[in-house]
């Protein structure tokens, strides 16, 4: 009887609170042991000095705490890291890859997972993963409607946030897609969006489609299951009407979000949007944007998603990569990341469910006029199925490229 | 110093693309200046290149060159012991005057500094050792070039129109200086020129090419 | 040992390129087992041809290659023809080196900021002269015709072609030729064009081909200044290679092969143009016009090269100003304040990449220099020199890395290197850089080396020095200045490499250039300004040493200054 109980207890405990069991604890200890002294090459987009500075801090912390040598491999396009892993697979390098950790989500994750380029599942093995309370927050285990199945670990959140120069626009920026068109007609050349296939630009298409489509539910199933032409017709009608009033009359678009921000900085446009709610405030602090910058989200909410870190299948240092991923989920690291003066990237932890001590870390007050209060970001629209992104990109290019 | 060396050209024949450019059979004794005259294109320079060991691969040569009875025909240029004096003094611009003089001195030669000083004094350039060669006059350069040649202790000397670029007065003085020094050292010399006066001052046998 | 040098060079340069091309060719026809492509098919090509705007991409790539080259060459030739030794001329010649040392991307950023509707020029005259309170909504930078792209390329290709011409000119003794023509009644500039150009062109023909190849396939400049809807072919290929949808790799490879074809087509078109110009030129020569339009020609040459130089430096100055700017918005001509914050933020991150950049650049340059010297010395000793300007001599292969577009073979090369079991290291990156550094070092040094008076070595030998002694004690010190210049060119080339560093180093070998490009992705012009300054100053250090060291060493050797 007692013998049986002993065997059953850990199992029951594992089901209840999986990562606090003795065996999970032991297993994690062995991961920590293995990780000690390893180097982790983390391929991460490096277009923002604030992100880079934060990664520097992470590097120092994991060195002190876990004796891991973290190297930030600075890339300008996540696809470059995916290419690298693919090249290694092409050359039959199955166990000595040069990429240990990638910052990614959406299409890149879908592509790597589909082609078996990822290691895992590992996310559930990270002790701090429990702090995201996935059972209450499905977005941390769902990447563009695809279940992550533990092949990537959540790191931060993004949500489409509009920002504008109040000195020019006043207090009444357009708050819906319909108002945006009216506003653009009244202010020709003062708004634009990044050109497709940029991630942010494509998200704008999806945001518009969600607002305009008659059958919104179709967007959460693979595109092949619906009539693409019919569903997207209102979108093209809208864009055809909008483009003549855009910056450069819609004959040219900025390459990406940062370039859109630069157009704001140069005064070439007066209204823009970003995926990082803290970006406008940070840019004001960096002298890029004017003090009169303000931000908001559209009525009815905007698209939001979670970004993740994943480990390539051939990383020889997956233990250390997991330890880094776990550290990134620690309340200390998450709170620092959310700090507007550091980066301002919203946490993926369920702060309300954390214990008091940890919750206090997130008690950050900022009255920066360009920064939205957290409650303003409450209305998040979930991302459509990733196949829609590709289909929209192809259709947009066929329609607007080379004219 | 005048132990006396002897340079023998044994049935030397130079051929370019199947046609004979020049044939020569001569013996040059110690201190003798043997003059080869001829217009441009007669093969004078080719002869010098052949004797010094720089013949371009386009030419074929037959015959032998003997220096003090040893066959040097197949030796590389640096081991032939044949010194050269060009039209230009060609003092190495990156070395001082003394550096130029030391350049050719055999490695084992003792008292290099003293020898350099003596050599400079012999041609009226005492104290010129540290100077930049670019600051010397044409005549001074020519004298340094001559002393550099002699200090390298050659066993024979080739002269490639060495006076043609000097002005008239200087040319006369230089000729006397050069020929005296060569005789004194007992070196067999071969002079190539198209200036008849050079040949007369040399005072040795003269042959004319291309006739 | 020495005899192996030419073969070593050819193997080092040709092997990787052919291997890389092969690895682009296979996926282009559907073969890439890692992505499930086990058979051959034409699907990648069908997919490629279905890309919207492909014809336009190809058109812009092709045209910008030819137009850039034609204009750069015309400006350089006109300038040289009108050179009179005035102070302005000397200044322009002196600016060649610093201009060359400005990395392409930095020059492009500078130009973009200069000419954009919200750029420096527009700010200087606004709102005073223009009345613009806001930037005018006109399309200048990234115009669909690729005009701004061509302008950016021309600014960078002019100094390169000028340097190549200056290196080749002494061989053909232009002063004597012009003097002769002038004695026959030709005006000086016309005389130069008629008697020097026909002999000069064959000597710079291969560098001209390199410019065409570069301009048709450039990535970084096209990203900044090139058209966007659609972008140039090379940029599209890069986008496809990095597309999250991995099945696009097949199409990207087909694109890489197409790029090779576009570059080849541009070269062939240029070759036909050459024939045409030669025919027309002969008639022009034979007509015997003495040059009534002489002064306009001379002024055009000077004016255009002056404009190009000024533009490049103004752009860089704008970036420099931005690197210390606080808030600075249109239409302010100057920033509202200056701050060191951007520099202070970058400084801690600088030391690593700067050290890596220096290590790789010095490593690649030293190897290139050693191989070049070995090959050239071998040429001297065997008395075999390649015929000048001949297209088919073995050393023409030196130009292969400059003529085959990087984007066509680099992705394949990475796979080849991985298959060979080489892991990304500094050594591998140095090897990759060598592909591009070696040709430039060879080109820069060959002329001086071949023209070096053979009597110096003969003299040294006749004074009893061995061949090696003559090399070390005479040739090397006397050729120090051109050697250092060649080394500086090599350093500059290495420092500017982006794709080879990124791809072969797997991003693990961060150089100033890879850092600059990845930070530039953030679009923050202040950060770009800081890194562009750093990126431009490193090669400049090389050029300063190249000019200064001989002067320092040969301070009291008059004939060693400015020679040979």
Automatic annotation (TrEMBL), chain A:
Taxonomy, superkingdom: Bacteria
Keywords: Signal
Leader sequence residues: 1-24
NCBIfam families on file: PRK11622.1
Protein name as catalogued: ABC transporter substrate-binding protein
Organism: Billgrantia kenyensis
From TrEMBL, chain B:
GO terms of molecular function: ATP binding; ATP hydrolysis activity
Pfam families xref list: ABC_tran
Keyword ATP-binding tagged: yes
Domain of life of the organism encoding this protein: Bacteria
UniProt domain ABC transporter: residue ranges: 6-211
Family matches, as SUPFAM superfamilies: P-loop containing nucleoside triphosphate hydrolases
InterPro entries: AAA+_ATPase (IPR003593), ABC_SmlMolc_Importer (IPR050093), ABC_transporter-like_ATP-bd (IPR003439), P-loop_NTPase (IPR027417)
PROSITE patterns in UniProt: ABC_TRANSPORTER_2 (PS50893)
Record keywords: ATP-binding, Nucleotide-binding, Transport
UniProt name for this protein: ATP-binding cassette domain-containing protein
UniProt lineage: Bacteria, Pseudomonadati, Pseudomonadota, Gammaproteobacteria, Oceanospirillales
UniProtKB/TrEMBL annotation, chain C:
Compartment(s): Cell inner membrane
Keywords from the UniProt entry: Cell inner membrane, Cell membrane, Membrane, Transmembrane, Transmembrane helix, Transport
Transmembrane segments: 7-34, 54-83, 95-116, 145-169, 208-230, 250-273, 304-330, 350-376, 397-416, 428-446, 476-499, 528-554
CC terms in the record's Gene Ontology section: plasma membrane
InterPro entries, A to Z: MetI-like (IPR000515), MetI-like_sf (IPR035906)
UniProt keyword annotation of Cell inner membrane present: yes
Record bears the keyword Transport: yes
CDD domains given in the database record: TM_PBP2
Record GO biological process: transmembrane transport
Predominant location: membrane
Residue ranges of every copy of the ABC transmembrane type-1 domain listed in the record: 54-269, 354-546
Membrane-protein topology: Multi-pass membrane protein
The protein's name in its UniProt record: ABC transporter permease subunit
Source organism of this protein record: Billgrantia kenyensis
